[in-house]
Specification:
Blueprint: H1 4-24, E1 54-56, E2 77-79, E3 87-89, E4 93-95, E5 100-101, E6 105-107, E7 111-113, E8 118-119, E9 123-125, E10 129-131, E11 136-137, E12 141-143, E13 146-148, E14 153-154, E15 158-160, E16 164-166, E17 171-172, E18 176-178, E19 182-184, E20 189-190, E21 194-196, E22 200-202, E23 207-208, E24 212-214, E25 218-220, E26 225-226, E27 230-232, E28 235-237, E29 242-243, E30 247-249
Parallel strand pairs: 1-3, 2-4, 3-6, 4-7, 5-8, 6-9, 7-10, 8-11, 9-12, 10-13, 11-14, 12-15, 13-16, 14-17, 15-18, 16-19, 17-20, 18-21, 19-22, 20-23, 21-24, 22-25, 23-26, 24-27, 25-28, 26-29, 27-30
InterPro entries: Trimer_LpxA-like_sf
Protein name: Polymer-forming cytoskeletal protein
Organism: Natronorubrum halalkaliphilum
Length: about 280
């Protein structure tokens, strides 16, 4: 059963993220009256250097030195039409809906891919990556936090220094490695291991063709299948879960630690039987 409360929360989070990213990205293609620089730039209106990465603020340009500091302020890129070029910028990158990028994206800040966009290469972002509905990414994603909306597909690994979060029906044909938490929506498929520096949560009918290794708690939703081992501080299973490997919980059930807990089992004695009466006399 779909968790509607979580779905509303997810949508709200995505909307908030989109709003924040939209605020970071310029929304006007006209020069600013204050500094004379463009806030949005169509990078592919006049492609002359086929096969070369497109770099924004990659070098000094007298036309860009209109602000007081002499620095280019047009780092944010909006991709409005298909291109075979790589995209490289120190700022944000936004792909509009249905746009196909035949290369990779390397951004110093956020990357926002709107619905039905496609990236044939990798995405490397200095900040968050938001992948919209029905978006396809053929290469790996490496970012601070990664959010994948419904029906998104990633044909390689997803790596984040923070959290990885998906909506329903997401496909990841690789491993998921997060420094924070991992939250996988209903019917999500991961063709690899899931590793998290925090908790791992799966919703209903999630399939993981690998193991789960979490430094926090693991919560498996109804019908979740895991082809490998599952380890975490604690492991909670919903109805109909199927784990092919072993389950390892790091949190000891015995809380009666004492000053003579020499065997490390928390029972206050130095023997492995857990019985204080059979300690060395």
């Amino acid at each position: 059963m779909t968790d509607t409360t979580r779905r509303r929360t997810f949508v709200a989070a995505v909307v908030g993220t989109v709003g924040s990213l939209a605020g970071c990205l310029g929304q006007s293609s006209e020069p600013s009256a204050e500094n004379g620089t463009e806030t949005v730039e169509n990078m592919f209106a006049d492609d002359e250097d086929d096969g070369e990465p497109i770099e924004v603020n990659g070098g000094e340009d007298e036309e860009d030195d209109d602000d007081e500091d002499g620095e280019n302020e047009t780092d944010d890129v909006t991709v409005e039409e298909d291109t075979d070029e790589d995209i490289s910028t120190e700022g944000t990158v936004e792909l509009l809906a249905d746009v196909d990028v035949g290369g990779s994206i390397d951004a110093g800040a956020y990357v926002l891919l709107r619905a039905d966009a496609e990236v044939d290469g990798s995405i490397d972002a200095g900040e968050d990556v938001l992948v919209g509905t029905d978006v396809e990414v053929d290469g790996p994603i490496d970012a601070s936090n990664v959010i994948l909306e419904a029906d998104a597909e990633v044909d390689a690994d997803v790596t984040a220094s923070g959290d990885v979060m998906t909506a329903e029906d997401v496909e990841i044909d690789g491993a998921v490695d997060a420094g924070g938490a991992v939250d996988l929506g209903d019917d999500t498929e991961v063709d690899g291991d899931v590793a998290a520096g925090g908790s791992v949560t799966t919703r209903a009918d999630v399939e993981i063709d690998g193991s789960i290794d979490a430094d926090g708690d693991v919560s498996l939703g109804d019908g979740t299948t895991v082809d490998g081992d599952v380890s975490g501080d604690s492991v909670e299973e919903g109805e109909g879960t199927d784990i092919d490997g072993d389950i390892e919980e790091d949190d000891a059930a015995d809380d009666d630690s004492g000053p003579f807990d020499d065997d490390g089992d928390g029972d206050g004695d130095d023997d492995d039987d857990g019985d204080d009466d059979d300690a060395d006399e």
